[in-house]
Specification:
This protein is of the alpha/beta class and 556 residues long. It has a domain at 207-310. It has 18 helices and 15 strands. Strand 1 (2-10) and strand 2 form a beta hairpin. It is elongated and about 145 Å long.
Length: 556
């Protein structure tokens, strides 16, 4: 429920904290005092569309904090799933600056306006403006009807969910086997082409690097031959070559090998000579293997293109290409062996689809039967609320496919006047009619799908006397399941209240302010007496107001 509302610089409200209680909270005050501003500030805190025009004149920003307590188990679970910290209460804070910046916090954590709105819709139903009424969202109609229907519909929906899950599992298996017959043949053809293309290429790991290096050598064959031949000559062939020079020096030092220092140097020179001789041998091998054959070059170039194309198509490397081929072969083998299994799966699927249709038909029939009951109950409620010519109908039309909730599209329709066809709620009801319609629906659906707090404005528009008593009684009835905040101008409605907040205007230093005050019982009696007899109620009006309160008290 909404426990505390703190409002700063919201239109005529400069700084007010309003405390609400469980049960029926009645907002009283003269027309224009600012009662609707209280509701507008609540809606602002819940993420509804914000207008900078509501920022109090001369101020840079407006802010509203709304504290909700006694959270339902379902709502607490929702908060946990969204990652918000809470301890059986939630504080919604929203600030709007004069440059249009929104600052939103949920229990102190930064949040988005869309998240705030999602949270707000689960906490409060507002019957003040058409765009704020959750019941005008046709997606909620099937949920409410199903909750009213109870266990039988719930079981049918559970069966639908189980059948859908089984069909989904079978579809996954069929897909792994190639899908239907046509898809399967296409997949077999594709896999066979891919496997054969790779297999016929006879790739081996590292071949791409080998071919690339060989092409590089052949491309530079002439340069390599010249460089290697010249290097070999300088190292070994010429009279003054490196090997000959080292050999001569070694021979000259051989006669002095009894001198340790010279002997060590000779050994090092011999090592150098042996290393150079080895290098020369390698150069000779390179020279002898270096030649340019155009046919060989073209063949290598074509092979390299083949390798590149396969890598591009099947994984980026030869290793990935070979793995792709292995998996393709496995899938081909499975497809070849899976024909019998595929036939069994398709047969199982057909049986499940037939069951799905049967359960969906049963669900539709059950909904239609329950819809008739709800229609009669709502129309009876509307008659008691003074809307004797109103008509309520639940339209159930088929969807193209059977989903987890069946094949039904459910729409609540309404007509307030005789001779008019029923239409969707947003196109038919005025503010007062809509509020009374919502009150009737809430009385029928009781706790099913109800938010923890309901806001009612204009609910007494166009009614008086006995109808007002009925409206008050029905408002009182639904407080058994939720908290109600109601703006009213009728004493017959007001006396059913459990908590009273008076909204009034004051002038200070040439400025107008809307302020609030929680009323005790005697003050509430006086406020109702003013509704009966004017600003200066007589003793008769005061006694009448007390009697009205006593009458309600005796009923409960």
């Amino acid at each position: 429920m909404l426990q505390t509302l703190k409002i700063e610089n919201f239109a005529l409200i400069e700084n007010q904290t309003v405390e609400f209680k469980n049960g029926l909270n009645i907002l009283l005050g003269e027309t224009g005092a600012g009662k609707s501003l209280i509701f507008n500030s609540i809606l602002f805190a819940l993420g509804m569309k914000a207008d900078k025009a509501f920022i109090r004149f001369g101020k840079k920003q407006m802010k509203v904090d709304a504290l909700f307590t006694n959270l339902s188990e379902e709502f607490s679970q929702f908060l946990q799933e969204q990652g918000f910290d809470f301890d059986n209460e939630i504080l919604l804070s929203r600030t709007l600056t004069d440059d249009g910046k929104n600052i939103v916090r949920i229990n102190g954590q930064i949040a988005t306006t869309s998240m705030l709105k999602e949270v707000g819709q689960k906490l409060v139903d507002s019957f003040t403006q058409h765009e704020s009424v959750s019941l005008l969202n046709s997606k909620s109609h099937i949920v409410m009807l199903d909750k009213f229907a109870g266990e039988k519909v719930a079981l049918l929906k559970e069966q639908l969910g189980q059948i859908h899950e089984k069909i989904s599992q079978i579809n996954s298996q069929i897909k792994s086997l190639g899908g239907d017959e046509g898809e399967r043949e296409r997949l077999i053809s594709l896999l066979k082409y891919q496997y054969d293309e790779i297999e016929n290429a006879s790739l081996h790991i590292g071949e791409d690097d080998e071919v690339k290096e060989r092409l590089k050598v052949m491309t530079s064959a002439e340069k390599i031959f010249e460089a290697v031949s010249s290097s070999e000559a300088l190292l070994s062939e010429n009279a003054g070559s490196a090997i000959n020079s080292l050999q001569e020096v070694s021979s000259m030092l051989a006669g002095l090998s009894n001198i340790e220092a010279i002997s060590s140097l000779k050994e090092r020179l011999d090592s150098c000579r042996y290393e150079i001789e080895d290098i020369v041998s390698a150069l000779v091998d390179i020279r002898d293997g270096t030649s340019f054959d155009e046919n060989e070059f073209n063949a290598l170039d074509a092979r390299y293109d083949t390798i590149k194309n396969l890598c591009k198509k099947y994984g980026g490397s030869i290793d990935a290409v070979l793995q792709f081929a292995s998996k393709a072969k496995e899938q081909l083998d499975m497809l070849d062996e899976g024909q019998e299994l595929l036939e069994k799966l398709n047969a199982q699927k057909e049986t499940l689809l037939a069951s799905l249709e049967k359960v969906a038909d049963d669900l539709t029939n059950e909904r239609k039967a329950v819809a008739k009951i709800v229609e009669n109950k709502v129309e009876q409620e509307l008659k008691e609320l003074g809307m004797k010519s109103s008509k309520f109908a639940i339209q159930i039309s088929p969807l193209k496919e059977v989903g987890t909730s069946g094949r039904d599209d459910v729409l609540f329709t309404f007509s307030a006047n005789a001779g008019q066809e029923v239409k969707s709620l947003s196109k038919t009801a005025s503010g007062g009619e809509l509020s009374r319609f919502m009150l009737a629906v809430k009385n029928i659906f009781a706790e099913n799908g109800m938010a923890s707090t309901l806001l009612f404005d204009e609910i007494d528009a166009g009614i008086s006397g006995e109808t007002g008593k009925i409206v008050g009684q029905k408002l009182k009835n639904i407080t058994g399941f939720c908290q109600v905040l109601c703006i009213t101008h009728l004493p017959q409605v007001a006396v059913f209240g459990d908590n009273f907040v008076n909204v009034f205007k004051v002038e200070k230093n040439g400025q107008t302010y809307s302020e609030t005050k929680s009323l005790n019982f005697d003050e509430a009696v006086e406020a109702v007496a003013k509704m009966i007899g004017g600003d200066n109620p007589t003793a008769i009006a005061l006694n009448h107001a007390k009697e009205m309160f006593e009458d309600v008290k005796n009923r409960h």
